[in-house]
Amino acid sequence: MTESALPRPARFPWLLPVAIFLVVMAALAAVLLFAREAGKSDAPPPLDAFVPPPGLPYAAYNVERSQAGKLTVTTGTAKDATSLNLDLPSGTRVWFLRTGTPAEIKPPLLVNVIAVPNEVRNYTITMLAFGQPAGIVSFEDGPLALADGFYGYETSREGRERAVVSAVLESFDGRNGVTRTANGPGTIFVDEGAPIRLLVAGEPAAIQPGDRIALHLRADGTPDVAQGVLVLVAGAR
After folding, report:
1. Which of 54-68, 121-135, 144-158 is predicted most confidently?
2. Are 215 and 57 in contact (CB under 8 A)?
3. Over the stretch 159-213, which tens digit does the pLDDT of each residue have?
4. CA-based nearest residue to 176, from 195, 198, 197, 191
5. Do the beta carbons of residue 209 and residue 66 sit within 8 Å?
6. Residue 190: which of 98, 120, 123, 106 has the closest Cα?
7. Is the dihedral of CA 143, 146, 148, 153 positive or negative?
8. DSSP 40
9. Closest Cα partner for 236 from 127, 136, 137, 148?
10. What is the torsion angle, in degrees rounded to the nearest 10, for the CA atoms of residue 19, residue 25, residue 27 and residue 28?
11. Mean pLDDT, to the nearest integer, of 107-114?
12. DSSP character for 98?
């Protein structure tokens, strides 16, 4: 027998046992993984506790009785109505939103356009609320409060109303006005049928039955008259 006919020894005699070992270990790992997954419950994971959205920082009330700053107000309707007595001492800051006309608009004034916003930015204006600007006006933080943190919509029965645009009215000819907004100069058109509301300061004793008021709320949810009162005069809506 020649040398070339003799069987040659394996070049890597250790390779086959190692390969077999790796295959066995991989199979064992797969079995363990399958067993662990099979032991899990099919029930969905528990849901996180529901956290309700924060409530509004103000509340609106209907004035039922008023005598020298002592008010009886209600909130809600029908059987869900709740009655509350409020005492507005002399010196309480009270702001009245009353119906106005174009002839009464005297710049410079801050104007908030009140509407119900939607996802397509197409809305019907429900109020043009005018008030005196307090100091230097900055548009950095969005819509501007007219007075004491009130924007003008807080007394609304439509809870979705918001100030969608704030502007400073710089000039007005009785129908057309020039404004300054967060985006630069602008214009405003006001006709006789526009829902004009003028913000004026007043006294607690001037609040009448039929008016609607808004108050800021404390952290515990109770109304705080010390932060000011917004009054929508009866008939102004």
Report:
1. 144-158
2. no
3. 889 999 999 999 999 999 999 999 999 999 998 889 999 999 999 999 999 999 9
4. 191
5. yes
6. 106
7. negative
8. S
9. 127
10. 160
11. 96
12. E
